[in-house]
Amino acid sequence: MESPWKTFVPQAPTRLGPPEWFTGTVYLSELVVTPAPMHLHVLRVMFAPGARTAWHTHPQGQVLHVESGIGWFQRWGEPVREMKAGDTIYFAAGEKHWHGASPTHAMTHLAIQAAVEGVSTEWLERVSEEEYRQKAD
C-alpha cells in the first residue's frame, strides 16, 4: 500500500534561493506543504559559507532545526548569535529576524512555518555586510 503522505506531499526538486530573499548561494528543498487547515511548510535550506536570508517575518512564527554546520541568526534589536547542528531556534509570530551560515562554514537547517492566507514569509530588506559581521567572538 502506498503511503498516504504521497497523496499531498510533492517531491519538489531542489531549487536555488531567489536573490531577492538571500545573499550568497542558498538551495531550497520543499519537503512538506500540507493542505488546510494546517497550512504547514517544511523546507530544508542549505547555505554556503557567508550566505544568509534577508530580514523577514512569519505570520505564525518559525522553528529552525539545524541539521549540520554552523550558522548565525539575529532577532531585530539583538546581537548576532551562533547556532550549530542539533540546535532548535523559535521565532515568534511577526518577529523580524534573519539566519544563515557563518562566514567559514556551510549550514543546513529545516525551516518549519505555517501559512496564513497562502503567505508563510514576509520578506523585508537585505542584511548588509555590516549587520552580518556584527557577531561578537
TrEMBL record:
InterPro entries: Cupin_2, HNL-like_cupin, RmlC-like_jellyroll, RmlC_Cupin_sf
CDD domains on file: cupin_HNL-like (cd02233)
Chain segments annotated as coiled-coil in the UniProt record: none
Source superkingdom: Bacteria
Gene3D superfamilies with a match to the protein in the record: Jelly Rolls
Residue span, Cupin type-2 domain: 44-101
Any matching Pfam family: Cupin_2
Protein name: Cupin type-2 domain-containing protein
The species this protein was found in: Meiothermus taiwanensis WR-220
